[in-house]
Design a protein that fits this description.
2 domains, four-stranded mixed beta sheet, alpha+beta, 319 residues, 60s Ribosomal Protein L30, Chain: A
């Protein structure tokens, strides 16, 4: 009897130790992700072209890591994604002459899905004009790994939306390559940038992507700044949300952030900004500025997380 009691106590203590160890790991992963996101933003702001294949992959790996981190995923996908992003960012910062273009078809916590899409991606990467389709191709690769994780974790019902994201990006890359007339992106000289951040709460109603009437004055100010840029190369709109979702589906935050960026794009087009110069991205809750304790009340978290609900605008061109 005494032996059984001691055995049970040992098991309980082991479980508690494991839980405490897991609690220690989570904040470390969060800090790793934030640090790597800042490194990626610095590379972009210092002039690395928006279409850069390796940077696009690194950012998408960080999107994956962030989303699964907030889902408290313990399959191993989070550290695997962090590791992939770090390898790419290290190489970019060191300005390595040659950076490998291989992407693992699966990592810890995922499985291989849709081999036909991997074949399409490989074909894009071998194309003579691949330089024009770098970004969507890099994103497609990581999203296909992400789809493999969702399949392994929850089945096809969860993986399908990620597969559609892969198909959309492959199509975008195919169109960009077919219409490619510019010099390869890697050969373009870095252009000056200006980064502007707008508060989403001042532009949109809660959980909505339709612009509020009060947004007009702020967006007109943005239009004026854009029109001051000579030889405008790009207006990049990146939508961001906070991590709060009552239904737990972070992918819906990703969609909302994309829709909000698209709403601003349509406004800018209506004000005369060329549509081919505007590129939109949805980052969801993957790139937070602030971290707030989850033990706060919902109302306090909404206030604390406000800086994360934003739209970032990056202007490229010659002032």
């Amino acid at each position: 009897m005494m032996f059984g009691t001691l055995l049970l106590l040992g098991v309980l203590l082991g479980n508690i130790s494991a839980a405490l160890a897991a609690d220690d790991v989570m904040p470390q992963q969060s800090q790793q992700i934030i640090t790597l996101q800042r490194r990626a933003e610095k590379l972009a702001f210092d002039g690395l072209h928006a279409n850069n294949y390796h940077l696009a992959k690194a950012r998408t790996w960080l999107d994956l890591a962030t989303s699964e981190y907030y889902d408290k995923d313990d399959s191993g996908i989070v550290p695997a994604a962090i590791g992939q992003a770090e390898i790419l960012l290290d190489a970019l910062e060191k300005k390595q002459a040659v950076i490998g273009m291989d992407t693992p078809m699966q990592v810890t916590g995922s499985e291989v899905v849709r081999p036909d899409l991997w074949v399409k991606i490989a074909t894009l990467k071998k194309h003579a004009k691949f330089s024009c389709g770098q970004r969507p191709t890099g994103e497609a690769e990581v999203y296909l790994v992400w789809a493999g994780h969702e399949k392994a974790e929850s089945g096809w019902s969860h993986a399908e939306s990620y597969v559609r994201a892969v198909e959309d990006r492959i199509y975008s890359a195919q169109v960009a390559i077919a219409n490619c007339t510019a010099a390869p992106a890697a050969a373009l000289p870095p252009q000056p940038q200006e980064k502007i951040t707008l508060d989403s709460d001042a532009l949109f109603a809660f959980n909505q992507a339709t612009l509020e009437p009060s947004a007009v004055s702020r967006l007109d100010g943005l239009v004026a700044k854009i029109k001051m840029v000579n030889m405008l190369e790009e207006v990049k709109l990146v939508g961001h949300t906070d991590r709060l979702r009552s239904d737990g589906h972070q992918e819906r935050n990703l969609l909302l952030s994309q829709q909000r960026a698209e709403s601003i794009k349509q406004y800018l087009i209506g004000k005369g900004i060329p549509t081919n110069k505007i590129h939109t991205f949805g980052a969801g809750s993957s790139q937070p500025i602030v971290q707030c304790p989850t033990g706060m009340s919902k109302e306090k978290q909404v206030i604390c997380l406000r800086p994360n609900r934003r739209v970032e605008i990056i202007l490229r061109g010659a002032k």
